Amino acid sequence: MQQLEWGHGGLTELHLVEDMRERKHRMLLNSDAVIALPGGCGTLEELLEAITLKRLGLYFNPIIIVNVAGFFDPLIAMLERCVCEGFMGPEHSRMWQVVASPAEVIAAIKSSRPWPENARDFAVVRARQESASS
Predict the structure, then answer these.
(1) Between 20-29 and 41-55, two packed helices, what is the crossing angle to 10 degrees?
(2) What's the pLDDT score for residue 11?
(3) How many Cβ atoms from other residues are within 10 Å of residue 66's Cβ?
(4) Alpha-carbon gap, residue 38 to 36, rounded angstroms
(5) Residue 57 main-chain phi, psi, to 5 deg
(6) How many helices (H) and strands (E) does the chain have?
(7) Annotated domain spans of the chain
(8) 61 or 21: which carries more pLDDT confidence?
(9) How far apart are CA 37 and CA 50, in angstroms?
(10) What is the tens place of the pLDDT at every residue in 6-41?
């Protein structure tokens, strides 16, 4: 991004990284929360990676989806369908919160329930269902 002149000259601190993988890793490692505002494919990819890592018990902080003017409605519907179809358990829908405006983000972070440290125990929905029916 720096080579494309996307770097912001007014920053007090700038970390240049080798690739997107390292960028996402550092952002999550150093974050207190993930906040997704409307954006393009990079935003969607980063949001879904954060949700995936939270589901696997590798990320525990709040994930806030800022659904300005219903921008994320189709994604939220798809995530809900994943739960309905059994690809995620009902408890997985607690991994994120949806707010309508940026003004609601801080309150959402403060009211976030901690993600369980044992999240890996219920990461694989199918395995749990198969063992329960055995």
Answers:
(1) 50
(2) 73
(3) 20
(4) 7
(5) 75, 30
(6) 5, 3
(7) 20-133
(8) 61
(9) 14
(10) 666 677 877 787 877 888 888 888 889 999 999 999
Residue 2, C-beta contacts closer than 8 angstroms, at least 6 positions apart = 16
- Neighbouring C-alpha atoms within 13 Å toward the C-beta of 128: 11
CA 89 to CA 3: how far, in whole Å?
Answer: 42
User: Exposure string (b/e) for 73-82, b if CB count within 10 Å is 16 or more?
Assistant: eebbeebeeb
- Nearest CA to 99 out of 64, 134, 63, 52 is that of 64
**Residues 64-109 pLDDT 10s:** 999 999 999 999 999 999 999 999 889 889 999 999 999 999 999 9
Q: State the pTM of this model.
A: 0.80
Q: Which two structure tokens, joined as six digits, stand for 115?
A: 């993600």
Give me the CATH topology for the region 20-133: Rossmann fold (3.40.50)
| Residue for token pair 């949700």 | 51
CA distances from 69 to 28, 36, 37, 40, 103 (A): 26, 14, 11, 15, 14
Write out the two tokens for 85: 């179809």
Beta bridge partners, 65, equal 36, 98
